[in-house]
Inverse folding.
């Protein structure tokens, strides 16, 4: 089964980038516009993290300036984890930080890998960068 899926590495990576960016957008809209649900975050988080999540998520999803934007999003997620979740306990399963920790490492990987196929960077000839 693994050998079968190996042929689709580029496509599955692109889907991971697109879906991760799409889901990240909604964290930003929750903070900035209280949609689809209110976040209740402090004002400084609303404007800093909310902007990175919404705009960064859009750029990651379409694959534009992917390496730089994903690196910034990864750093924001790491900071968010330590500012909010780590204070509530060491293990992410206990402190509610699984999602933000996963975003941190997914975006770090995207930053290292680049946009890949199905991206604006790819159309610009910078799919790896």
């Amino acid at each position: 089964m693994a050998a079968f899926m190996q042929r689709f590495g580029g496509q599955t990576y692109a889907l991971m980038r697109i879906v991760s960016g799409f889901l990240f957008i909604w964290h930003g809209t929750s903070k900035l516009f209280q949609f689809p649900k209110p976040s209740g975050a402090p004002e400084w988080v609303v404007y800093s993290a909310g902007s990175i999540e919404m705009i960064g998520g859009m750029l990651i999803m379409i694959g534009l300036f992917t390496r730089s934007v994903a690196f910034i999003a990864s750093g924001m997620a790491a900071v968010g984890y330590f500012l909010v979740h780590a204070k509530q306990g060491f293990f992410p399963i206990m402190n509610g930080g699984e999602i933000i920790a996963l975003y941190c490492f997914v975006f770090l990987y995207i930053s290292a890998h680049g946009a890949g196929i199905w991206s604006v960077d790819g159309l610009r000839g910078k799919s790896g960068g």
User: Anything to note?
Assistant: The mean pLDDT is 94.
